[in-house]
Amino acid sequence: MLVKLENVYKSFSDKAVLKNINFSVEEGEILSVVGFSGTGKSTLLKIISGLIEPDSGSVKVYHKEIGMAFQYSALFDSLTVFENVAFPLMERKDLKNQYTMGEIRKLVSEKLEMVGLSGIEDKYPSELSGGMQKRVGFARAIVTNPKIILYDEPTSG
């Protein structure tokens, strides 16, 4: 099992966004959460990734290797494409100093090629179209070869 949620509840300003959410995801499974705007899909992903805590319930993620592609790419404006994609490799405590700069360059290049963006490593997010920014966000989400990848609205923007 990769992920298990039991009776997860989350509210904001007394408005319940998630109520008694229960499910599990096994290795090799793909789970899609579909719903109208404002129904808690992004909140659910942020809880699974550990970015926010549920008010109650249990969340068990059996692998720390999680990649997250955010709804609006969430790129750092002041960093180049290379720096944005390399960010998890250089800043995550469990990965910091694990790779040489040459290995990081190779991994970033491979992931950018996978999303069809070879050769833009020196550009800044403001120099890219919205679709290109989204793909840079995908490259960053997969650069660590995570066991779990969370995509928030992958076809929007």
Task: Offer a concise description of the structure.
The protein is an alpha+beta fold and 157 residues long.
Q: What can you see in these coordinates?
A:
- Helix 2 packs across helix 3 and helix 2 packs parallel to helix 4.
- The radius of gyration is 17 Å and the shape is globular.
- The longest helix is centred in the C-terminal third of the chain and has 14 residues.
- The two termini are 32 Å apart.
- The chain has 157 residues and is of the alpha+beta class.
- It has 2 domains: 60 residues, P-loop containing nucleotide triphosphate hydrolases (Rossmann fold); 85 residues, Rossmann fold (3-Layer(aba) Sandwich).
- Strands 2-1-3 form a 3-stranded antiparallel beta sheet, covered by helices on one side. A two-stranded parallel sheet has the order 4-5.
- It has 4 helices and 5 strands; from the N terminus they run ββαββαααβ.
Features:
3-stranded antiparallel sheet, Rossmann fold, 157 residues, alpha+beta, 4 helices, globular, two-stranded parallel ribbon
Which helices and strands occur, and which strands form pairs?
Elements: E1 3-12, E2 15-25, H1 41-49, E3 56-61, E4 66-69, H2 81-91, H3 101-114, H4 130-142, E5 148-151
Parallel strand pairs: 4-5
Antiparallel strand pairs: 1-2, 1-3
Helix pairs in contact: 2-3, 2-4, 3-4
Note the total helix count. Answer: 4
Question: How many β strands by DSSP?
Answer: 5
What overall geometry do the principal axes of the alpha carbons give? globular
Radius of gyration: 17 Å
Q: What's the story with the biggest beta sheet?
A: 3 strands, antiparallel
Question: What structural category arises from helix and sheet content?
Answer: alpha+beta
CATH class of the largest domain: Alpha Beta
Classify the helix fraction into a percent range.
25-40%
Strand order of the largest sheet: 2-1-3
CATH architecture of the largest domain: 3-Layer(aba) Sandwich
Domains (count) = 2
